[in-house]
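Researcher: Let's do a round of design. I'm pasting the structure tokens now; please hold your answer until I've finished.
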């Protein structure tokens, strides 16, 4: 009994010595997300700013600006008490891609005539025709396919080659948000892509109160919360004319098939950050349709992609895009969100983020839901900024609706290989083992470290 009391006393002492290390395991502050716990904000009415170039919203938390003439869909925002870093999101365009082997966008698989000829035709269609038909019919099919390739539209529709029309902003009474829309109204210099005119919209809602959104009243379980001070987009595409549909028509005429699911449409978004003194470069893009002005001045060095640190200072665009792994491993897609943070380094300053739910709605013309589809994503460092591609699988002639969000959040906690906390834990563990061994030796008993609790 006496030896047992000594053992208990020794182990109690060990636990006391290890207490600092154990305390280090528990963060003292909830890091996710004080900015999102604000239930309401006082938003100023939007006003014209800097020679009528921007519409500007002010609030105690966030300041938001966007082009007043609606010339292109780009959005800039910053923490109101610290304008040293301005976050930028630019909607670059849409890209029809071939999802060969992977369900997400990769730049080497644009669904254009060159890539289709080098992949689908070379690997699948031509061998099947050669096996099925004799020379005469085979030659006829080859000639028809070559003519078809010349009729395909380009895979990439750059939004800078389009005219956009801005409607609003107007305050929606009873809803707690300001509403404004960017509508693509004209396509220039891209033959066979005119069908996109008036069929691509970015509907924007800037909230002054925290709100739970239910996109489909018939599916109340499919909802999400938008915090005060966040800007929610509805990215809408109607009547997209798929190159793959033309290919499938050819295959049907010749008695062949390939899976329709091997194509998709990617929304290309650039994420960058600039200094206030570099705002003029963004204004050059707004006024004169200049390209890449923001990206060349971007100060962005890292991003946090769904919790993982990723360097963006180098240009990796010649490499394959990286998948956002969380979109490939969904368990409860209607409860998950995919988030990308800008990385600043400061712990006490809210940072910008972009997030999206990993599902999109397909709608009938009357606005009711036909189905929900999984959304994937890929990204790549582009030298001072990040290219993000939000990927939607083939959706036929249905209307696509998906809603990313931008805003401010507390800086995420990023694990490091060796930190002060980890060092304390290792020291504490060593002390526990050392004291326990010493206590047992005092009792003159054999020591088995693995059995010490």
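Researcher: That's everything. Go ahead.
Model: Designed sequence:
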């Amino acid at each position: 009994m006496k030896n047992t009391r000594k053992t208990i006393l020794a182990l109690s002492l060990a636990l006391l010595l290890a207490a600092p290390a154990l305390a280090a395991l528990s963060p003292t502050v909830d890091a996710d997300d004080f900015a999102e716990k604000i239930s309401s904000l006082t938003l100023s009415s939007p006003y014209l700013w800097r020679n009528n170039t921007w519409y500007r919203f002010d609030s105690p938390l966030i300041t938001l600006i966007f082009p007043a003439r609606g010339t292109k869909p780009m959005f800039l925002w910053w923490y109101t008490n610290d304008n040293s870093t301005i976050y930028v999101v630019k909607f670059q365009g849409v890209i029809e891609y071939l999802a060969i082997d992977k369900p997400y966008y990769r730049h080497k698989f644009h669904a254009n005539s060159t890539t289709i000829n080098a992949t689908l035709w070379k690997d699948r269609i031509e061998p099947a025709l050669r096996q099925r038909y004799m020379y005469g019919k085979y030659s006829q099919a080859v000639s028809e396919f070559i003519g078809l390739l010349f009729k395909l539209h380009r895979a990439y529709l750059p939004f800078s080659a389009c005219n956009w029309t801005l409607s609003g902003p107007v305050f929606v009474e009873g809803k707690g948000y300001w509403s404004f829309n960017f509508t693509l109204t004209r396509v220039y210099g891209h033959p066979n892509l005119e069908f996109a005119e008036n069929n691509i919209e970015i509907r924007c809602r800037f909230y002054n109160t925290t709100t739970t959104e239910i996109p489909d009243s018939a599916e109340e379980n499919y909802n999400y919360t938008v915090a005060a001070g966040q800007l929610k987009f509805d990215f809408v595409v109607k009547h997209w004319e798929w190159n793959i549909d033309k290919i499938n028509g050819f295959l049907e005429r010749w008695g062949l098939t390939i899976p329709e699911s091997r194509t998709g449409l990617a929304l290309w978004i650039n994420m960058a950050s600039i200094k206030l003194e570099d705002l003029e470069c963004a204004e050059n893009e707004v006024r004169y349709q200049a390209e890449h002005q923001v990206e060349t001045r971007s100060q962005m060095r890292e991003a946090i992609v769904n919790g993982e640190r990723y360097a963006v200072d180098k240009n990796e665009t010649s490499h394959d895009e990286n998948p956002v792994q969380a979109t490939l491993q969904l368990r409860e897609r209607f409860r998950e969100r995919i988030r990308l943070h800008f990385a600043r380094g400061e712990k006490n300053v809210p940072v910008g983020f972009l997030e999206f739910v990993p599902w999109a709605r397909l709608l009938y013309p009357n606005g009711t839901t036909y189905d929900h589809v999984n959304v994937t994503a890929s990204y790549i460092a582009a030298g001072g900024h990040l290219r993000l591609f939000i990927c939607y699988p083939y959706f036929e002639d249905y209307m696509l609706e998906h809603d990313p969000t931008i805003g401010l959040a507390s800086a995420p906690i990023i694990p490091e290989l060796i930190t002060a906390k980890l060092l304390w834990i290792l020291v504490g563990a060593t002390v526990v083992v050392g004291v326990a061994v010493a206590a047992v030796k005092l009792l003159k008993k054999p020591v088995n470290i693995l059995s010490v609790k």
